Amino acid sequence: MFLEEMLKYNEKFVEGKEYEKYKSDSLPNKKMVIFTCMESRLVELLPKALNIHNGDVKMVKNAGAIIRKPFDSIIKSLLVAVYNLNAEQIIVIGHHDCGMSNVDTHALYDNMRKKGISKETLNAIDYAGIDIHQEFHGFETVEESINQSVDIIRNHPLLPEYVMVHGLVIDPHTGKIDMVYRDPKSEGLEF
Question: Which pTM value belongs to this model?
Fold first, then answer.
């Protein structure tokens, strides 16, 4: 089982004091928070592609790097990073070939049923006003999704004016980064 392997590895990691090369305080060195997808191909690729090291940034993730509501848990995390952890830039990073692109919510619903979620539970969720298809739909293009998330962050009433918000997309095969949105306040600044 992978959990047992990880725990055995961790014992050796701690015993060998491997953690020492990763020591840092809790404030991000680059005064930046990155909001990205939970994509497994990006775990090492994204930091390497952007020259990010332990302690440089705060990293927040969800499926698809999607923000739909101005007071969801992602926004709360971003605001905490700004107010309590000195972040001055927020970068939304989506990726090509994302599993949230064009999600078939009917297939997802069927998978929920096949994996033990009862019809009664799904009906109760629907009765509570949560539309499974609306809640889990993805996006048409990654650029559209990034722009939506950037707009919600940029226009948030609790975001200080000085905070810069950018949108990028990464190719999970090559690590190539493309700019989708660059905050106008950053023109002429070096990162």
Answer: 0.90
